[in-house]
Predict the structure.
Amino acid sequence: MKETKHINTDPLRIREILAKSLEMQVLDLTEVSALLALEDSSLWFEVFDTARRVKEKVYGKRIVLFAPLYLSNECTNDCLYCGFRTGNSDARRKTLTVDEAVQEASLLAGRGYKRLLLVTSEHAKLAGIEYIEKVVDAIYSSTDIRILHANTAPMNVEDFRRLKGAGIGVYQCFQETYHIPTYRFMHPKGAKADYAWRLGVMDRAVEAGFEDIGMGVLLGLYDWRWETGALIAHCKRLINKYGFGPHTLSVPRLQPAQGSMVHNLHYNVSDDDIKKIVAIYRLALPYTGVVISTREPAGLRDKLLSIGASQISAGSKTSPWGYVEGGDTEQFETGDKRSLEEIIGKIVSLGYMPSLCTACYREGRSGEKFRHLAETKAIKAFCNENALLSLKEYIEDCASGDVKDQLMKMLDKEINKSTNGLAEKFRLIEQGKRDIHV
Ligand code: SF4
Protein backbone atom coordinates (compact mmCIF):
# COMPACT_ATOMS: atom_id res chain seq x y z
CA MET A 1 0.00 0.00 0.00
CA LYS A 2 2.82 2.48 -0.79
CA GLU A 3 0.32 4.64 -2.61
CA THR A 4 -1.31 5.48 0.71
CA LYS A 5 0.94 8.54 1.07
CA HIS A 6 -1.02 10.12 -1.81
CA ILE A 7 -4.40 9.52 -0.20
CA ASN A 8 -6.00 12.40 1.64
CA THR A 9 -6.49 11.38 5.28
CA ASP A 10 -6.83 14.90 6.55
CA PRO A 11 -9.25 15.07 9.54
CA LEU A 12 -11.69 17.23 7.56
CA ARG A 13 -11.78 14.69 4.78
CA ILE A 14 -12.22 11.76 7.20
CA ARG A 15 -15.05 13.57 8.99
CA GLU A 16 -16.78 14.22 5.66
CA ILE A 17 -16.62 10.50 4.95
CA LEU A 18 -18.00 9.65 8.38
CA ALA A 19 -20.85 12.12 7.86
CA LYS A 20 -21.68 10.41 4.56
CA SER A 21 -21.86 7.04 6.31
CA LEU A 22 -24.09 8.49 8.99
CA GLU A 23 -26.43 9.50 6.15
CA MET A 24 -26.47 5.76 5.35
CA GLN A 25 -24.81 6.19 1.98
CA VAL A 26 -22.54 3.54 0.49
CA LEU A 27 -18.96 4.86 0.34
CA ASP A 28 -17.04 5.06 -2.90
CA LEU A 29 -13.66 3.41 -3.26
CA THR A 30 -11.61 6.59 -2.78
CA GLU A 31 -13.43 7.10 0.53
CA VAL A 32 -12.76 3.50 1.52
CA SER A 33 -9.10 4.02 0.60
CA ALA A 34 -8.91 7.05 2.88
CA LEU A 35 -10.19 5.02 5.83
CA LEU A 36 -7.79 2.18 5.00
CA ALA A 37 -4.88 4.63 4.92
CA LEU A 38 -5.80 6.45 8.13
CA GLU A 39 -3.10 6.31 10.79
CA ASP A 40 -4.14 8.97 13.32
CA SER A 41 -5.23 6.94 16.36
CA SER A 42 -7.38 9.73 17.83
CA LEU A 43 -9.36 9.89 14.58
CA TRP A 44 -9.79 6.13 14.71
CA PHE A 45 -11.80 6.60 17.91
CA GLU A 46 -14.18 8.79 15.91
CA VAL A 47 -14.32 6.18 13.17
CA PHE A 48 -15.20 3.41 15.67
CA ASP A 49 -17.82 5.53 17.32
CA THR A 50 -19.39 6.44 13.98
CA ALA A 51 -19.45 2.75 13.00
CA ARG A 52 -21.35 2.02 16.21
CA ARG A 53 -23.82 4.82 15.48
CA VAL A 54 -24.38 3.63 11.91
CA LYS A 55 -24.95 0.08 13.12
CA GLU A 56 -27.43 1.22 15.74
CA LYS A 57 -29.29 3.33 13.17
CA VAL A 58 -29.94 0.18 11.12
CA TYR A 59 -30.12 -2.59 13.72
CA GLY A 60 -30.61 -0.85 17.06
CA LYS A 61 -28.92 -2.74 19.91
CA ARG A 62 -29.72 -6.13 18.46
CA ILE A 63 -27.05 -8.84 18.01
CA VAL A 64 -28.16 -11.89 16.03
CA LEU A 65 -26.91 -15.30 17.19
CA PHE A 66 -26.43 -18.52 15.24
CA ALA A 67 -24.27 -21.64 15.14
CA PRO A 68 -22.48 -23.41 12.29
CA LEU A 69 -23.33 -27.05 11.64
CA TYR A 70 -20.49 -28.82 9.85
CA LEU A 71 -21.76 -31.60 7.61
CA SER A 72 -18.55 -32.93 6.11
CA ASN A 73 -14.78 -32.57 6.35
CA GLU A 74 -14.07 -34.71 3.28
CA CYS A 75 -12.59 -32.38 0.71
CA THR A 76 -11.11 -32.63 -2.76
CA ASN A 77 -9.27 -29.31 -2.45
CA ASP A 78 -5.94 -28.67 -0.78
CA CYS A 79 -6.21 -25.16 0.67
CA LEU A 80 -2.91 -24.92 2.53
CA TYR A 81 -4.39 -23.26 5.63
CA CYS A 82 -7.28 -25.67 6.25
CA GLY A 83 -7.53 -28.73 8.49
CA PHE A 84 -9.88 -30.39 5.99
CA ARG A 85 -7.49 -30.20 3.03
CA THR A 86 -7.00 -33.39 1.08
CA GLY A 87 -3.28 -33.45 1.89
CA ASN A 88 -3.86 -33.60 5.65
CA SER A 89 -3.27 -37.30 6.10
CA ASP A 90 -3.80 -37.05 9.87
CA ALA A 91 -7.37 -35.81 9.44
CA ARG A 92 -10.15 -38.10 10.62
CA ARG A 93 -12.78 -37.80 7.93
CA LYS A 94 -16.52 -37.78 8.32
CA THR A 95 -19.60 -36.83 6.36
CA LEU A 96 -22.72 -36.85 8.51
CA THR A 97 -25.55 -39.10 7.46
CA VAL A 98 -28.85 -37.29 7.07
CA ASP A 99 -29.94 -38.77 10.37
CA GLU A 100 -26.77 -37.57 12.11
CA ALA A 101 -27.26 -34.07 10.68
CA VAL A 102 -30.77 -34.08 12.17
CA GLN A 103 -29.37 -35.22 15.54
CA GLU A 104 -26.86 -32.36 15.53
CA ALA A 105 -29.56 -29.85 14.56
CA SER A 106 -31.96 -31.20 17.21
CA LEU A 107 -29.30 -30.86 19.87
CA LEU A 108 -28.70 -27.25 18.85
CA ALA A 109 -32.44 -26.52 18.71
CA GLY A 110 -32.67 -27.90 22.24
CA ARG A 111 -30.07 -25.34 23.33
CA GLY A 112 -32.21 -22.53 21.90
CA TYR A 113 -30.78 -21.95 18.43
CA LYS A 114 -33.29 -21.22 15.67
CA ARG A 115 -30.82 -20.33 12.91
CA LEU A 116 -27.98 -22.56 11.69
CA LEU A 117 -25.32 -22.18 9.04
CA LEU A 118 -24.72 -25.50 7.26
CA VAL A 119 -21.05 -25.81 6.32
CA THR A 120 -19.62 -28.39 3.95
CA SER A 121 -16.17 -28.97 2.60
CA GLU A 122 -15.95 -29.32 -1.18
CA HIS A 123 -16.74 -32.84 -2.30
CA ALA A 124 -19.17 -33.08 -5.20
CA LYS A 125 -19.92 -36.78 -4.63
CA LEU A 126 -20.25 -36.83 -0.85
CA ALA A 127 -21.54 -33.33 -0.15
CA GLY A 128 -23.16 -32.27 -3.41
CA ILE A 129 -26.57 -30.74 -3.96
CA GLU A 130 -28.58 -33.97 -3.60
CA TYR A 131 -27.09 -34.65 -0.20
CA ILE A 132 -27.61 -31.04 0.93
CA GLU A 133 -31.25 -31.07 -0.24
CA LYS A 134 -31.91 -34.18 1.83
CA VAL A 135 -30.24 -32.71 4.91
CA VAL A 136 -32.13 -29.41 4.63
CA ASP A 137 -35.46 -31.14 4.14
CA ALA A 138 -34.89 -33.48 7.10
CA ILE A 139 -33.79 -30.67 9.46
CA TYR A 140 -36.77 -28.49 8.57
CA SER A 141 -39.26 -31.32 8.87
CA SER A 142 -37.99 -32.87 12.10
CA THR A 143 -36.44 -30.15 14.25
CA ASP A 144 -37.36 -26.71 15.63
CA ILE A 145 -34.69 -24.99 13.53
CA ARG A 146 -36.44 -22.22 11.59
CA ILE A 147 -33.87 -21.06 9.06
CA LEU A 148 -30.84 -22.70 7.51
CA HIS A 149 -28.13 -20.77 5.73
CA ALA A 150 -25.40 -22.53 3.76
CA ASN A 151 -21.67 -22.21 3.22
CA THR A 152 -20.93 -24.75 0.49
CA ALA A 153 -18.73 -25.20 -2.55
CA PRO A 154 -19.51 -22.79 -5.41
CA MET A 155 -22.18 -24.35 -7.64
CA ASN A 156 -23.52 -23.89 -11.13
CA VAL A 157 -26.75 -21.93 -11.58
CA GLU A 158 -28.93 -25.02 -11.77
CA ASP A 159 -27.63 -26.39 -8.45
CA PHE A 160 -28.00 -22.98 -6.84
CA ARG A 161 -31.66 -23.00 -7.92
CA ARG A 162 -32.08 -26.32 -6.12
CA LEU A 163 -30.30 -24.97 -3.04
CA LYS A 164 -32.59 -21.95 -2.96
CA GLY A 165 -35.63 -24.15 -3.61
CA ALA A 166 -34.66 -26.35 -0.67
CA GLY A 167 -35.19 -23.37 1.63
CA ILE A 168 -31.71 -21.95 2.22
CA GLY A 169 -31.82 -18.32 3.39
CA VAL A 170 -28.33 -16.89 2.88
CA TYR A 171 -25.77 -18.46 0.57
CA GLN A 172 -22.28 -17.77 1.89
CA CYS A 173 -18.92 -18.23 0.20
CA PHE A 174 -15.62 -16.44 0.82
CA GLN A 175 -13.14 -15.58 -1.91
CA GLU A 176 -10.42 -16.21 0.74
CA THR A 177 -8.01 -13.85 -1.07
CA TYR A 178 -8.49 -11.58 -4.06
CA HIS A 179 -4.74 -11.44 -4.67
CA ILE A 180 -4.24 -13.79 -7.61
CA PRO A 181 -0.63 -14.97 -6.92
CA THR A 182 -1.54 -15.64 -3.27
CA TYR A 183 -4.75 -17.39 -4.32
CA ARG A 184 -2.83 -19.67 -6.71
CA PHE A 185 -0.25 -20.53 -4.07
CA MET A 186 -2.82 -21.24 -1.35
CA HIS A 187 -5.16 -23.32 -3.54
CA PRO A 188 -2.96 -25.66 -5.54
CA LYS A 189 -5.48 -28.45 -6.27
CA GLY A 190 -9.10 -29.25 -6.95
CA ALA A 191 -11.96 -27.11 -8.22
CA LYS A 192 -10.98 -24.31 -5.88
CA ALA A 193 -7.74 -23.78 -7.80
CA ASP A 194 -9.90 -21.98 -10.40
CA TYR A 195 -9.89 -18.35 -9.19
CA ALA A 196 -12.42 -17.17 -11.77
CA TRP A 197 -14.94 -19.91 -10.92
CA ARG A 198 -14.88 -18.79 -7.30
CA LEU A 199 -14.92 -15.09 -8.18
CA GLY A 200 -18.11 -15.57 -10.21
CA VAL A 201 -19.91 -17.57 -7.51
CA MET A 202 -22.16 -14.73 -6.35
CA ASP A 203 -23.20 -13.87 -9.90
CA ARG A 204 -24.36 -17.46 -10.35
CA ALA A 205 -26.10 -17.50 -6.97
CA VAL A 206 -27.93 -14.24 -7.78
CA GLU A 207 -28.85 -15.54 -11.24
CA ALA A 208 -30.38 -18.57 -9.51
CA GLY A 209 -32.53 -16.37 -7.28
CA PHE A 210 -30.45 -15.78 -4.14
CA GLU A 211 -30.82 -12.20 -3.00
CA ASP A 212 -29.16 -12.84 0.33
CA ILE A 213 -25.49 -13.63 -0.11
CA GLY A 214 -22.65 -13.67 2.39
CA MET A 215 -19.11 -12.72 1.42
CA GLY A 216 -15.69 -12.39 3.04
CA VAL A 217 -11.94 -12.77 2.80
CA LEU A 218 -9.72 -14.92 4.99
CA LEU A 219 -7.67 -12.25 6.72
CA GLY A 220 -3.98 -13.02 7.08
CA LEU A 221 -3.29 -14.58 3.68
CA TYR A 222 -2.31 -11.23 2.16
CA ASP A 223 -2.21 -7.51 3.07
CA TRP A 224 -5.46 -6.84 4.93
CA ARG A 225 -5.85 -3.31 3.59
CA TRP A 226 -5.63 -4.53 0.02
CA GLU A 227 -8.04 -7.41 0.70
CA THR A 228 -10.55 -5.21 2.49
CA GLY A 229 -10.54 -2.75 -0.41
CA ALA A 230 -10.84 -5.58 -2.94
CA LEU A 231 -13.80 -7.16 -1.13
CA ILE A 232 -15.62 -3.82 -0.95
CA ALA A 233 -14.87 -3.27 -4.65
CA HIS A 234 -16.42 -6.70 -5.37
CA CYS A 235 -19.51 -5.76 -3.33
CA LYS A 236 -19.85 -2.47 -5.19
CA ARG A 237 -19.63 -4.28 -8.50
CA LEU A 238 -22.55 -6.48 -7.41
CA ILE A 239 -24.51 -3.41 -6.27
CA ASN A 240 -23.93 -1.75 -9.65
CA LYS A 241 -24.93 -4.87 -11.54
CA TYR A 242 -27.89 -6.17 -9.51
CA GLY A 243 -28.95 -3.23 -7.38
CA PHE A 244 -27.93 -4.95 -4.14
CA GLY A 245 -24.80 -6.12 -2.40
CA PRO A 246 -24.14 -8.77 0.21
CA HIS A 247 -26.54 -9.47 3.05
CA THR A 248 -23.55 -10.16 5.29
CA LEU A 249 -19.80 -9.67 5.34
CA SER A 250 -17.83 -12.05 7.56
CA VAL A 251 -14.51 -11.30 9.20
CA PRO A 252 -12.62 -14.61 9.44
CA ARG A 253 -8.95 -14.38 10.45
CA LEU A 254 -6.44 -17.12 9.72
CA GLN A 255 -6.09 -19.47 12.71
CA PRO A 256 -3.94 -22.54 13.38
CA ALA A 257 -5.38 -25.77 12.01
CA GLN A 258 -4.28 -29.39 12.19
CA GLY A 259 -2.20 -30.14 9.10
CA SER A 260 -1.97 -26.50 8.03
CA MET A 261 0.95 -25.77 5.69
CA VAL A 262 0.79 -22.06 6.36
CA HIS A 263 3.36 -20.73 8.83
CA ASN A 264 5.12 -17.41 9.29
CA LEU A 265 3.15 -15.46 6.74
CA HIS A 266 4.11 -11.81 6.72
CA TYR A 267 0.55 -10.56 6.72
CA ASN A 268 -0.24 -10.52 10.39
CA VAL A 269 -3.66 -9.04 11.23
CA SER A 270 -3.70 -7.68 14.78
CA ASP A 271 -6.74 -7.27 17.02
CA ASP A 272 -6.60 -3.52 16.31
CA ASP A 273 -6.62 -4.26 12.58
CA ILE A 274 -9.72 -6.44 13.02
CA LYS A 275 -11.48 -3.54 14.76
CA LYS A 276 -10.58 -1.26 11.84
CA ILE A 277 -11.81 -3.80 9.29
CA VAL A 278 -15.16 -4.23 11.07
CA ALA A 279 -15.60 -0.46 11.26
CA ILE A 280 -14.72 0.01 7.58
CA TYR A 281 -17.17 -2.69 6.44
CA ARG A 282 -19.89 -1.08 8.55
CA LEU A 283 -19.17 2.42 7.22
CA ALA A 284 -18.66 1.42 3.59
CA LEU A 285 -21.86 -0.66 3.35
CA PRO A 286 -24.11 0.62 6.14
CA TYR A 287 -26.97 -1.87 5.62
CA THR A 288 -24.83 -4.98 5.50
CA GLY A 289 -24.73 -7.41 8.43
CA VAL A 290 -21.20 -7.85 9.81
CA VAL A 291 -20.55 -11.34 11.18
CA ILE A 292 -17.83 -12.12 13.72
CA SER A 293 -16.36 -15.57 13.57
CA THR A 294 -15.95 -17.89 16.52
CA ARG A 295 -12.26 -17.99 15.56
CA GLU A 296 -11.77 -14.78 17.53
CA PRO A 297 -11.18 -14.65 21.29
CA ALA A 298 -14.08 -13.75 23.57
CA GLY A 299 -12.72 -10.35 24.67
CA LEU A 300 -12.21 -9.13 21.11
CA ARG A 301 -15.64 -10.36 20.00
CA ASP A 302 -17.24 -8.46 22.85
CA LYS A 303 -15.44 -5.25 21.81
CA LEU A 304 -16.47 -5.65 18.18
CA LEU A 305 -20.13 -5.47 19.18
CA SER A 306 -19.65 -1.78 19.87
CA ILE A 307 -17.79 -1.15 16.62
CA GLY A 308 -20.33 -2.30 14.09
CA ALA A 309 -20.73 -6.07 14.30
CA SER A 310 -24.33 -7.27 14.09
CA GLN A 311 -24.10 -11.08 14.17
CA ILE A 312 -21.96 -13.59 16.05
CA SER A 313 -21.81 -17.35 16.16
CA ALA A 314 -21.97 -18.90 19.61
CA GLY A 315 -21.00 -22.22 21.15
CA SER A 316 -19.57 -23.31 17.81
CA LYS A 317 -17.90 -26.58 16.84
CA THR A 318 -16.01 -26.65 13.55
CA SER A 319 -16.02 -30.39 12.90
CA PRO A 320 -18.75 -32.75 11.69
CA TRP A 321 -20.40 -34.54 14.63
CA GLY A 322 -18.87 -31.85 16.82
CA TYR A 323 -21.95 -31.16 18.93
CA VAL A 324 -23.10 -34.71 19.62
CA GLU A 325 -19.69 -36.31 20.15
CA GLY A 326 -17.06 -33.58 20.13
CA GLY A 327 -16.07 -34.40 16.53
CA ASP A 328 -12.60 -35.04 15.16
CA THR A 329 -10.59 -32.86 12.82
CA GLU A 330 -11.66 -29.22 13.02
CA GLN A 331 -11.45 -26.80 10.12
CA PHE A 332 -9.64 -24.36 12.40
CA GLU A 333 -9.20 -23.71 16.10
CA THR A 334 -11.93 -21.68 17.76
CA GLY A 335 -11.01 -18.78 20.02
CA ASP A 336 -14.30 -18.23 21.84
CA LYS A 337 -15.35 -21.35 23.72
CA ARG A 338 -18.38 -19.81 25.47
CA SER A 339 -21.76 -21.46 25.23
CA LEU A 340 -24.81 -19.77 23.70
CA GLU A 341 -26.13 -19.06 27.20
CA GLU A 342 -22.85 -17.47 28.34
CA ILE A 343 -22.71 -15.28 25.24
CA ILE A 344 -26.33 -14.22 25.68
CA GLY A 345 -25.55 -13.20 29.26
CA LYS A 346 -22.51 -11.23 28.14
CA ILE A 347 -24.40 -9.42 25.38
CA VAL A 348 -27.09 -8.33 27.85
CA SER A 349 -24.50 -7.17 30.38
CA LEU A 350 -22.89 -5.01 27.66
CA GLY A 351 -26.21 -3.27 27.03
CA TYR A 352 -27.05 -5.04 23.76
CA MET A 353 -30.00 -7.22 22.90
CA PRO A 354 -29.34 -10.82 21.85
CA SER A 355 -31.69 -12.08 19.16
CA LEU A 356 -32.61 -15.58 18.07
CA CYS A 357 -35.20 -14.20 15.70
CA THR A 358 -35.87 -15.63 12.24
CA ALA A 359 -39.10 -13.73 11.55
CA CYS A 360 -37.97 -11.98 8.37
CA TYR A 361 -37.40 -15.30 6.64
CA ARG A 362 -40.76 -16.60 7.81
CA GLU A 363 -42.49 -13.47 6.54
CA GLY A 364 -40.60 -13.25 3.26
CA ARG A 365 -38.81 -10.08 4.34
CA SER A 366 -35.51 -11.06 2.75
CA GLY A 367 -33.45 -9.71 -0.10
CA GLU A 368 -34.74 -6.48 -1.61
CA LYS A 369 -37.72 -6.26 0.77
CA PHE A 370 -35.41 -6.47 3.78
CA ARG A 371 -33.14 -3.79 2.37
CA HIS A 372 -36.06 -1.48 1.70
CA LEU A 373 -37.29 -1.91 5.27
CA ALA A 374 -33.78 -1.35 6.62
CA GLU A 375 -33.43 1.81 4.54
CA THR A 376 -36.73 3.20 5.81
CA LYS A 377 -35.70 2.21 9.35
CA ALA A 378 -38.93 0.21 9.68
CA ILE A 379 -36.88 -2.91 10.25
CA LYS A 380 -35.78 -1.65 13.64
CA ALA A 381 -39.37 -1.72 14.88
CA PHE A 382 -39.92 -5.30 13.69
CA CYS A 383 -36.57 -6.50 14.88
CA ASN A 384 -36.77 -5.16 18.38
CA GLU A 385 -40.11 -6.79 19.11
CA ASN A 386 -39.16 -10.03 17.39
CA ALA A 387 -35.89 -10.20 19.29
CA LEU A 388 -37.82 -9.84 22.55
CA LEU A 389 -40.27 -12.54 21.52
CA SER A 390 -37.38 -14.86 20.65
CA LEU A 391 -35.82 -14.19 24.06
CA LYS A 392 -39.09 -14.91 25.82
CA GLU A 393 -39.13 -18.32 24.12
CA TYR A 394 -35.52 -18.82 25.15
CA ILE A 395 -36.39 -18.01 28.77
CA GLU A 396 -39.26 -20.48 28.75
CA ASP A 397 -37.39 -23.30 27.00
CA CYS A 398 -33.68 -23.06 27.78
CA ALA A 399 -32.36 -20.29 30.01
CA SER A 400 -31.19 -20.96 33.54
CA GLY A 401 -29.59 -19.27 36.54
CA ASP A 402 -28.21 -15.74 36.30
CA VAL A 403 -28.74 -15.46 32.56
CA LYS A 404 -32.44 -16.23 32.99
CA ASP A 405 -32.68 -13.52 35.68
CA GLN A 406 -30.83 -11.02 33.47
CA LEU A 407 -33.17 -11.72 30.55
CA MET A 408 -36.29 -11.53 32.68
CA LYS A 409 -35.25 -8.13 34.02
CA MET A 410 -34.58 -6.91 30.51
CA LEU A 411 -37.95 -8.12 29.22
CA ASP A 412 -39.77 -6.55 32.18
CA LYS A 413 -38.31 -3.16 31.26
CA GLU A 414 -39.26 -3.62 27.61
CA ILE A 415 -42.86 -4.59 28.47
CA ASN A 416 -43.21 -1.29 30.27
CA LYS A 417 -42.07 0.57 27.15
CA SER A 418 -44.23 -1.43 24.73
CA THR A 419 -47.46 -0.14 23.25
CA ASN A 420 -47.84 -3.15 21.00
CA GLY A 421 -49.39 -5.86 23.17
CA LEU A 422 -46.07 -7.39 24.07
CA ALA A 423 -47.32 -8.55 27.48
CA GLU A 424 -50.15 -10.51 25.85
CA LYS A 425 -47.73 -12.14 23.38
CA PHE A 426 -45.45 -13.09 26.28
CA ARG A 427 -48.43 -14.69 28.02
CA LEU A 428 -49.15 -16.76 24.92
CA ILE A 429 -45.54 -17.94 24.88
CA GLU A 430 -45.83 -18.90 28.58
CA GLN A 431 -48.90 -20.94 27.60
CA GLY A 432 -46.83 -22.84 25.04
CA LYS A 433 -47.40 -20.94 21.79
CA ARG A 434 -44.25 -20.64 19.70
CA ASP A 435 -42.93 -18.66 16.72
CA ILE A 436 -44.98 -15.55 17.47
CA HIS A 437 -43.54 -12.68 15.45
CA VAL A 438 -44.43 -9.54 13.63
S1 SF4 B 1 -11.06 -24.38 2.89
FE1 SF4 B 1 -12.85 -25.49 2.17
S2 SF4 B 1 -12.26 -26.15 0.15
FE2 SF4 B 1 -10.37 -25.64 1.16
S3 SF4 B 1 -9.59 -27.58 2.03
FE3 SF4 B 1 -10.85 -26.53 3.59
S4 SF4 B 1 -12.87 -27.35 3.39
FE4 SF4 B 1 -11.75 -27.86 1.52
